Amino acid sequence: PVLVVDFGAQYAQLIARRVREANVYSEVVPHTMPVAEMLAKDPAAVVLSGGPSSVYEEGAPTLDAALLEAGVPVFGICYGFQSMVKALGGTVAHTGLREYGATMASVSDTSSTLFNGQTADQSVWMSHGDSVSEAPAGMRVTASTPGAPVAAFEDDERKLYGVQWHPEVIHSTFGQRVLENFLLRGAGLEPTWTASNVVEDLVGAIREQVGDAHVLCALSGGVDSSVAAALVQKAVGDQLTCVFVDHGLLRAGEAEQVEQEFVAATGVDLVVVDAREQFLTALAGVSDPEEKRKIIGREFIRVFEQAARDVVGSADAEGHPVEFLVQGTLYPDVVESGGGTGAANIKSHHNVGGLPEDLQFKLVEPLRTLFKDEVRQVGLELGVPEGIVWRQPFPGPGLGIRIVGDVTAERLEILRAADQIAREELTAAGLDRDIWQCPVVLLADVRSVGVQGDGRTYGHPIVLRPVSSEDAMTADWTRLPYDVLARISGRITNEVREVNRVVLDVTSKPPGTIEWE
Ligand code: XMP
To answer: Its biological function (predicted)?
Structure first.
């Protein structure tokens, strides 16, 4: 792999993704990992990330010079660049010239390894207080900026490279090109990390892990569980049984999408449990959000556990035990829980977290090396329906936490109808990939006066909550075009009886969460 050494930057995962966008496999490792351990991973190249510190600060992360002497191509970014300078005997100084944001860099050699094929003047994204004033011996300086006389250097002999700016952010015009030049020209790597190769590798790994055993998967209809199931299906076919719990809190068409389209496209063996009544009964009269979440989580586990027992009892005609459970864990979760390799780190996913002890499964986590966008590519490669591959995030508790008030069959029907209209119009306007998600919320305990037809109405408001986000940790409300809002509002108030008002949530996160409950 290409190792991305994390110096505490918010950018390390982004760098790893950019490396993969160049079709080269990458892994994030902490800067605290000893060099011997990094080298044991047989890295094809190393990228040193940025970081918040100043290299001369007490306690600042240091770069072990041994990493630069191992014959592995190295590319330093921002703090990583400065740490190379420090390790190799150049000078990093407080020049007093800080640069934050877009800056013009001046490249002195557009035929160099990093800058081949680019323009001499290019916009780059900077975020630094210290600057390199003197390059280490043997380094050729190939770019400068107003605040950084040494803004890039290259040494083709030792295969050491670096830039002061952040090539991984899109504001650096040639950022991806610089990174690709390092990987493909500098390090001489082949761009072989493609969706079809990935599928082949993962399928092989699943076969090896699972052997003859039987595998169980809880299918939610979301991207991750669907792609994970499709991969396992491709790997071991009949040895997989998927369980889909229809809790009645899904949006219009979603259960059918899983039960029909997904099954037709992938051929998985699917057990559908219709638990709609059970959930409605359990939720009757409950309006407290946390209480609702607890009930939905608890009922889910009950239903899934029973289904799992049935499958375990009957799944495999040849007498193979049900040994494995599929989890849709993604690479960011793996990085964040600190474990690049080694034993599976079981996240307490509400779907399966509460399985009883006598149902002990080993985990199959076919997506644990992948980022979300790669999961989508793999899904497309496997023929998973596009409606599932491009699905926006949808909470496990579903529409249950989008009805403010208690949940009834009638209220679910109202919300489902309104939600369907909003989704249709957003899709028709081509906005699906511009918004992160758009919860549609029914204020079931609120009524307001309206006039519809010739009469006075006393109906419920529907809230539209379109948000833009990178990772759902923070979000901003999306500035949807007025004409799209007008169409949604017009259709909902005309087509959904009981709704006489549509309002727009214009709150960012924080302070508001994305969901209302
Ligand atoms: P909040 O409302 O906390 O939501 O800003 C952040 C993201 O998480 C989703 N969400 C959930 N997903 N189970 C899930 O699988 C849940 O209980 C849950 N609650 C919120 C939400 O849709 C948003 O994408």
So the answer is: Catalyzes the synthesis of GMP from XMP.
